[in-house]
Amino acid sequence: SDVTLWAVTPDQGMVLVDRRIPRSATPTIGVHRLDASGETVYCVSIPYVPIPVPGSVVDSLISRYAAGGTDRGKIREILFLPPTYPPVARVLAARDGSVWMSRAGPNDEPVEWMVLDRQGVLVATLQVPRKFKLYVIESDTIWGVETDELDVPYVVAHELEKEELP
Predict the structure, then answer these.
(1) DSSP H or E stretch at residue 42
(2) pTM, to two decimals
(3) Bridge partners, 29 (sequence order)
């Protein structure tokens, strides 16, 4: 799906992420931040490089739906099968006013998170293992859940290493 994602901010505002599949030569992610009264705090466009959806993923999805005997051609007509992954899979609003957006992509790659500061400026990107599902962001620690080899979930905290700029 490429529907708009949203997150509620700690100050009762909202972040909206327009993640439609690109229709132009320079694709962008639209990020709109609203305060609690609905006034726009910022509206930014972040360029990104689309990640193609492999044909094998599309074929696997069609096969899953066709298992009940439905015609593969009909399934292809009905399903939303974009040529690229949506640019954002999740959005989280942190307590410090930053906005975190994870890139969508193949299941065998680490998850990349883009971090916007409270003014909407892209200030960092980081990668976390795919098995780590991020839930809470603090100034120097991210909290999430991982599962072990028996699929038992457990809480994990990772400290963020920040580089000082010269």
Answers:
(1) strand 40-47
(2) 0.84
(3) 46
CA gap 46, 122 in Å, rounded? 8
The 10s digit of each residue's pLDDT in 41-52 is 999 999 999 888
Report the C-alpha gap between 33 and 82 in whole angstroms.
27
- Give 17's strand partners: 5, 31
**Is-contact 100 113, C-beta < 8 A?**
yes
Half-sphere exposure of 41 (CA within 13 A, CB side): 23
Q: How far apart are CA 31 and CA 49, in angstroms?
A: 16
For the chain, the 3-state helix, strand and coil shares in percent, each to the nearest 5, are: 10, 40, 50
Q: How many residues does the chain have?
A: 166
